[in-house]
Amino acid sequence: MNKIDMYSVGLTERFIEEAKIYEGLNTGRISSQYKDLYKVITAAGELTAEISGKFRYHARAMSEYPAVGDFVMLDRTDNYTGNGVIHHVLKRKSAFARKVAGTTNDMQIVAANINMVFICMSLNNDFNLRRLERYLSIAWDSGATPVVVLTKSDLCDDIEARLNDIAPLTFGVDILVTTSISGDGYLSLKRYISSGRTVAFIGSSGVGKSTLINRLLGKNTFTTNAIRNDDKGRHTTSRRELVVLPEGGAVIDTPGMREIGIISADLTKSFADIDELASKCKFRDCTHGSEPNCTVQKAINDDILPAERLESYNKLKKEAKYDGLSSKLIEREKINEMFSGVGGMKNARKFIKEKNRKKSR
């Protein structure tokens, strides 16, 4: 069994300190899951593990179960005497999550403890601005940094027009244009990945996520189907999987997600243009409907802001239970949720003040 440098796959001092609470257990990182079994990377190599009965009994929601990218505490580092047993999940520093279909408030963790989210979108048939808004809103909220990766540039006749289309959506976001045709069409991605960092590849089926990861790995680890010029090709990734790159760092491949339900979102960054316009409306609680002197509606009438973008903004606000709230009230609502168990906004201000005081020392 080959030994693994856990620092190169994202283990940090924060996780090490938390792990000290659990004496007699070993630290590992979830690399994949199949039904009730997990593949876990440890310093001694990779092993198969399952969660303990006690863990299962106390878990209140799907989101509390181990997810790909999680650091966990388990009872062994090999399978010589059977499957390992996972007893604890260490606190996540970031998580890309989506709403579970058919439920009201449960969420599925798509990738945990990630530094960056590569939102992959094809420049031909998969190109969809409304879906990109949705992905960006969740990515900003995850605690990781989003990067938009436009794939299959060889199949696009007017790349400049596509870049202009996404410009209002991607303020503060890096945009990479890639192709799977030329051997160096993926090299722009490499500068974002280094030892200790983890990048999750997110996007619809067939956009080329697995192909890009195979290029980064230098071998065909992930099977891909043939991609035709009509963009009907589909890759065969059926579950999330974390792999370690030869030069250090890790990437997470995910199954295609054409529809992605929102539980929480950061709309102030993914809709920065609307936020800026809204700050100039006559009324602070303007809903951008029929109120007088609404700057957002004026921008739509002047063909500065597409009406579809405001519709998307309102739809995502409603999904994330921020319907009827201004951007400032959304942020206040999010802070209240974060600190709900300790006094809401009052203690949030106290926390921020204390944090700033420590920085100034």
Description:
With 361 residues, the protein is of the alpha/beta class. The chain has three domains: 6-91, Beta Barrel (OB fold (Dihydrolipoamide Acetyltransferase, E2P)); 96-253, 3-Layer(aba) Sandwich (Rossmann fold), CATH 3.40.50.300; 267-354, Orthogonal Bundle (Ribonucleotide Reductase Protein R1, domain 1), CATH 1.10.40.50. 29% of the residues lie in helices and 21% in strands. It is built from eleven helices and 13 strands. The strands form three sheets. The protein has a six-stranded mixed sheet with strand order 10-9-8-11-13-12. The longest helix has 17 residues, at 344-360. The model is unreliable at 226-237 (pLDDT under 50).
Computed Rg: 22 Å
Distinct helical segment count: 11
Helix-strand topology string: HEEEHEEEEEHEHEEHEEHHHHHH
Our measurement of the CA-to-CA distance between the termini, rounded to an integer number of angstroms, reads: 47 Å
Average pLDDT works out at 84
CATH superfamily of the largest domain: P-loop containing nucleotide triphosphate hydrolases
Shape estimate: globular
| Structural domain tally | 3
Portion in beta strands: 15-25%
User: SS-based structural class?
Assistant: alpha/beta
Unreliable segments of 5+ consecutive residues? 226-237
CATH architecture of the largest domain: 3-Layer(aba) Sandwich
CATH topology of the largest domain: Rossmann fold
Determine and state the CATH class of the largest domain: Alpha Beta
Strand order of the largest sheet: 10-9-8-11-13-12
